[in-house]
Design brief:
267 residues, Cobalt-precorrin-4 Transmethylase, domain 1, Methyltransferase, Cobalt-precorrin-4 Transmethylase, Domain 2, five-stranded parallel beta sheet, 10 helices, elongated
Length: 267
């Protein structure tokens, strides 16, 4: 059997993986895992190994991107290989690329889905899924350059009345995890250049920290307020709402402690 199974681990700890995922991993000849695409704050590798009754080979960003997952594909050529992935395997383009490569080599692929930050943000904020536009990552900026893409995506989505989900950069090897404050500061720096009044001190946003854990933090407010708010430990995520349905406004007020003036965004 030549097979590669992608298994989503969920958002927080080894206990978030599905029963089906555990069964699939137990049946595999080799189990790989990557932890660079997202941070699972309560994950224990030892406990995960005990759960699936297998030793796990952790692969790096370089293994998957520069070496195109060759070691994983080589094992899948011999039998059943599994790749454990934070969140849901179908979200990151890295995993999609690896799946395409496997299929082209005649290796059967399957996905065992897990909880995703995309669905968690919708659930925690009360914003409606079908009203989200293109999502974007806010990267760490070099001292002499600022990436404008996130600002441009937010601008385009707002013109259409859509919400924008902003992933915040994670560099596991350096143990650097972008905070909501840093993400906002990065966007405000672009605003100084663009001057389109897309991201200003009064702009409404939603910050979410540790989605999927037992103690997530969800706070909606103006940028100037979120810059001072303590969201606690990572991982953190940022959302810029577009036009709101009245139920979305109620949800932000009730679930995310939004100010009453969020109702002005109802259309």
């Amino acid at each position: 059997m030549r097979e590669l199974v992608f298994i989503g681990l969920g958002l927080c700890s080894e206990r978030d993986v599905s029963l089906r995922g555990v069964d699939e991993a137990k049946e595999a000849s080799v189990v790989f895992a990557e932890f660079y695409t997202s941070l699972m704050p309560e994950l224990s590798l030892r406990k995960l190994e005990r759960l699936i009754e297998k030793k796990i080979k952790v692969v790096s960003r370089r293994d998957l991107e520069e070496y195109t997952g060759k070691m994983i594909l080589d094992e899948a050529e011999k039998g059943k290989a599994v790749l454990l992935v934070p969140g849901d395997p179908s979200i990151a383009t890295t995993h999609v690329d690896l799946r395409i490569r496997a299929e082209k080599q005649g290796i059967k692929t399957r996905i065992v889905h897990g909880a995703s930050i995309v669905s968690a943000v919708v659930g925690l904020s009360g914003l409606q899924n079908y009203k989200f536009g293109r999502s974007v990552t806010i990267p760490f900026s070099d001292a002499d350059s600022i990436v404008e893409t996130p600002y441009n995506v937010i601008t385009q989505n707002k013109k259409l009345g859509l919400h924008t989900l902003c992933f915040l950069d994670i560099r596991v090897e350096e143990k650097r995890y972008m905070t909501i404050k840093k993400g906002l500061e990065t966007l405000l720096a672009v605003e100084k250049i663009k001057r389109k009044n897309v991201i200003a001190q009064h702009t409404m946003a939603v910050g979410i920290a540790r989605a999927g854990s037992t103690n997530p933090t969800v706070k909606a407010g103006e940028v100037k307020e979120l810059l001072k708010f303590d969201f606690g430990a990572p991982p953190q995520t940022l959302v810029f709402p577009g036009k709101l349905h009245f139920m979305e406004a109620e949800a932000l007020i009730t679930l995310a402690d939004a100010p009453e003036n969020v109702r002005k965004m109802i259309e």
